[in-house]
Amino acid sequence: MSTIDYQEKIPNNVNLKEDRTLQRALERWQPSYLDWWQDMGPDGSTNFDVYLRTAVSVDPQGWAQFGHVKMPDYRWGIFLNPAEQDRKIHFGDHLGEAAWQDVPGEYRANLRRIIVTQGDTEPASVEQQRHLGLTAPSQYDLRNLFQVNVEEGRHLWAMVYLLHKYFGKDGREEGEALLERRSGQTDNPRILEAFNEETPDWLSFFMFTYFTDRDGKFQLCALAESSFDPLARTTKFMLTEEAHHMFVGESGISRVIQRTCQAMNELKTDDPAKLRAAGVIDLPTIQRYLNFHFSVTIDLFGADESSNAATFYTTGLKGRFEEGKRTDDHQLRNDSYRVLELRDGQLREKEVPMLNALNEVLRDDYITDSKSGVERWNKVIEKAGIPFRLNVPHKAFHRNIGALKGVKVNPQGQVISDNEWNARNHEWLPSESDRAFVASLMGRVVEPGKFANWIAPPVMGINRQPVNFEYVRFN
Ligand SMILES: [Fe+2]
Ligand SMILES: [Fe+2]
């Protein structure tokens, strides 16, 4: 079951050939997908041989195989984690009942919406990142970008499989629509706001893979708890791929910081102008990028109070992060949670029913997880002996959804006047000139083992290959 059949036109471990109708429907979608990839996938890279990993099995050990592949020939397919015998629903109103192998009629619309919303983010990020290959700081980084891109493509396959298999005609139409929306387009944009922002440079890319792919992790973790078993199994496998995306972000930022600290020590300065003149990214600029990506990403969890979130939980569609590890009653009818609101000009806590606050619960879990990597970045700065620390901003900072939408708050969480916001927001968020400076550093480095001046090499290569391995053959 867990071995993937690569003889088939669509590699899969779901016995696709037993279901001719589904197989035909997916084989009809496949050329549209490839057209989308040609149109919106990584710019100018069709002919490159890229050292990519491909899933050969969904077992935790040895699921990946590495080799040089042209990206349009990547074997995108459908991989589910093996079924858990007699899996039971473990939260919500159906607690204790058998997990669903099919979609219950009454939950069809909500499940479809959840799957479409998740599915939409996958091609969106490929579209956001499509020009980055032209300015990669090294072959190693270029290869990582492409790995992330092909796997986001595969995540789209994962969601489209569910839509085709379980949602009939509506599902097939949604599958087409997923290839028609475009990140940042005004008339047919991607569903969620953060996925319509540009990823214009590599500092943004690393922040995106650290922060926004981590949102992906938390959403997938919540869906991996779902009572709808096929959704749980497919998201569990997606999570193993997601881990690499976050690694790319965390190690990427860490290497940027390392290089900056090295220049600070060599030049004995913390003056951003001098550091910029030396071609590295000053730490305050890194902080502003962090503030931007963190705040835009935490909006993705939705409104702090949400009756939809309550419905998704009580009906068993979407659990909490690590639902299975929690020791409460998994129904939460008698529980409350604290959310923030603006009252009398101050941020104040208010107690609301936990079920309505589940977006906030997931956001808070996310924030805790995000902070740990930021602490690891701070260790790099500390080790260099530099008295500067990066911080995640207060969760009310620069928000655009829920009760905190538009509230003017500084990164420390103090409510400020519009005037102060207007006068100071360039200290907290990347300004046009910050972005222009970062853009000015972006030049393509193609020689194996060479790295752009603004980023340190990684400690290790991919799959135990040397750092100067030929990760991409340009042909
Ligand atoms: Fe993804
Ligand atoms: Fe991802």
TrEMBL record:
The keyword Oxidoreductase applies. Its EC number is 1.14.13.208. Gene3D superfamilies: Ribonucleotide Reductase, subunit A. Keywords: Oxidoreductase. The keyword Transcription regulation does not apply. It is an enzyme of class 1 (oxidoreductase). Coiled coil: none annotated. GO terms for molecular function: oxidoreductase activity. It comes from the Bacteria. This is Benzoyl-CoA 2,3-epoxidase subunit BoxB. It comes from Candidatus Thiothrix phosphatis. The lineage of its organism: Bacteria, Pseudomonadati, Pseudomonadota, Gammaproteobacteria, Thiotrichales. The gene is boxB.
